[in-house]
């Protein structure tokens, strides 16, 4: 006689049972931190950590597609990261091209659209070229929006918005009295995206490091000590499940 008891479910069933597909954050933003420390622990150069971090990126992109996340914003390079040694900056600037060279066909197949936020013009030519090619190629895809924050700084973004608003007031394109939170948001890099629902930061640091200061006003934060190159599907799902337990109140009851 065979009797199937509900508590003898296999692992796969257990996972899908716990990660409720109905309450998935629309927009997940991740501060991918800890590459350098991952390498240091292995007595490797910091760039080895960045290279390994690319594997985590594709793993999480696949997972985001699987769970029907609408927007995945990944903090890849901040406006402050230019302070790092030149060889490290140069290596980081080559990573988008390397990532896209390997994974663009898969991203196309998965219907992923590539976007960026940040001061794009100030990136090296070769970086811009590779990323722009991918943006154009994926422009008509309507699946996951994979949004890389590249040369992104929130204070810079807000300053640029203010300057543009002042200039638009000057030329009568907008009326100051009509300016509100929603029209202000239209001056930010993120104008086409909803605010993040969930922010993840790896590596144990609990700070924003100039990331999406305006947009994260009501976002749920989730921190882990895991270093970015060790981040994986299981930990991502843990973050999703924890998000699902949160009660968002937006100041109400
Ligand atoms: C994150 O890892 C990647 C970037 C900031 C580009 P780090 O390079 O900051 O790694 P840690 O924080 O030094 O370990
Ligand atoms: C934030 O990490 C930027 C990115 C992940 C791209 P950092 O490593 O630059 O942040 P801090 O310096 O520790 O605050
Ligand atoms: Mg860091």
UniProtKB/TrEMBL annotation:
Keyword annotations of the record: Magnesium, Metal-binding, Transferase
SUPFAM superfamilies registered for this protein in UniProt: Undecaprenyl diphosphate synthase (SSF64005)
One example of a Gene Ontology biological process annotation: polyprenol biosynthetic process
Keyword Metal-binding annotated: yes
PROSITE patterns: UPP_SYNTHASE
Amino-acid positions noted as binding substrate in the UniProt annotation, renumbered to this chain: 34-38, 46, 50, 78-80, 82, 84, 201, 207-209
UniProt similarity note: Belongs to the UPP synthase family.
UniProt cross-references to PANTHER family, sorted A to Z: DEHYDRODOLICHYL DIPHOSPHATE SYNTHASE 2, DEHYDRODOLICHYL DIPHOSPHATE SYNTHASE FAMILY MEMBER
Assembly and oligomerization: Homodimer.
Function as written in the Swiss-Prot or TrEMBL entry: Catalyzes the condensation of isopentenyl diphosphate (IPP) with allylic pyrophosphates generating different type of terpenoids.
The protein's name: Isoprenyl transferase
Native source species: Virgibacillus halodenitrificans
């Amino acid at each position: 006689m065979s009797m199937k008891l509900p508590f003898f479910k296999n692992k796969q069933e257990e996972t899908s049972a716990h990660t409720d597909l109905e309450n998935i954050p629309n927009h997940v933003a991740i501060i991918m931190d800890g590459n350098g420390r991952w390498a240091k622990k292995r007595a490797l150069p910091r760039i080895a950590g960045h290279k390994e971090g690319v594997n985590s990126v594709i793993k999480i992109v696949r997972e985001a597609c699987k769970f029907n996340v609408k927007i995945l914003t990944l903090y890849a390079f901040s406006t402050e990261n230019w302070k790092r040694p030149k060889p490290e900056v140069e290596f980081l600037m080559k990573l988008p091209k390397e990532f896209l060279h390997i994974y663009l066909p898969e991203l196309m197949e998965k219907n992923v659209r590539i976007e960026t936020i940040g001061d794009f013009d100030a990136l090296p030519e070769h970086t811009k070229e590779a990323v722009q090619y991918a943006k154009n190629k994926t422009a008509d895809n309507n699946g996951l929006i994979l949004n890389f924050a590249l040369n992104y700084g929130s204070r810079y973004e807000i300053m640029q918005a203010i300057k543009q608003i002042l200039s638009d007031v000057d030329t009568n394109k907008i009326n100051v009295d009509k300016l509100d939170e929603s029209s202000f948001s239209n001056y930010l890099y993120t104008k086409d995206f909803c605010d993040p629902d969930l922010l993840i930061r790896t590596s144990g640091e609990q700070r924003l490091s100039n990331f999406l200061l305006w947009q994260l006003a009501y976002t749920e934060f989730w921190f882990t000590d895991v270093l970015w190159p060790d981040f994986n599907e299981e930990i991502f799902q843990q973050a999703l499940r924890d998000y699902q337990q949160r009660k968002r109140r937006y100041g109400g009851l």
